[in-house]
């Protein structure tokens, strides 16, 4: 169910910041995500028990209002990114 929320937030960011690159928009969404639920609790890893890590839950719950004005955003370009990380940022043409 995250895709429609992220798509909507992306559209709002594009409207407010039309010159931002896709990587800047991605950065805004990821860096502004909430890492706790609405009650202030960290997510629980139901398989292993305890608090779930970022691998299990991703960046967190998207926060549209914070994503519109995230403060610092990271620009990713293939030329300045180590090859192991640049592979996912390279367009595939699909």
UniProtKB/TrEMBL annotation:
Record's keyword annotation contains Signal? yes
Query: Is the keyword 4Fe-4S in the record?
Result: no
Share an example GO biological-process annotation for this protein: proteolysis
Mention one GO molecular function: serine-type endopeptidase activity
Q: Which domain of life is it from?
A: Eukaryota
Keywords from the UniProt entry: Hydrolase, Protease, Signal
| UniProt-listed InterPro entries | Peptidase_S8/S53_dom, Peptidase_S8/S53_dom_sf, SBT
Enumerate the PROSITE patterns for this protein.
SUBTILASE
All copies of domain Peptidase S8/S53, residue ranges:
1-48
Family from the record: Belongs to the peptidase S8 family.
The identity of this protein, by name, is Subtilisin-like protease
Q: Which species does this protein come from?
A: Musa troglodytarum
């Amino acid at each position: 169910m995250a895709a429609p929320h992220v798509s909507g937030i992306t559209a709002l960011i594009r409207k407010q910041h039309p010159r931002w690159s896709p990587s800047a928009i991605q950065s805004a969404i990821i860096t502004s995500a909430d890492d706790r639920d609405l009650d202030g609790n960290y997510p629980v890893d139901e398989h292993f028990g305890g608090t779930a890590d970022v691998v299990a839950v991703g960046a967190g719950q998207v926060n549209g209002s914070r994503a519109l004005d995230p403060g610092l955003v990271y620009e990713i370009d293939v030329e300045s990114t180590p090859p192991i990380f640049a592979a996912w940022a390279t367009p595939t043409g699909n």
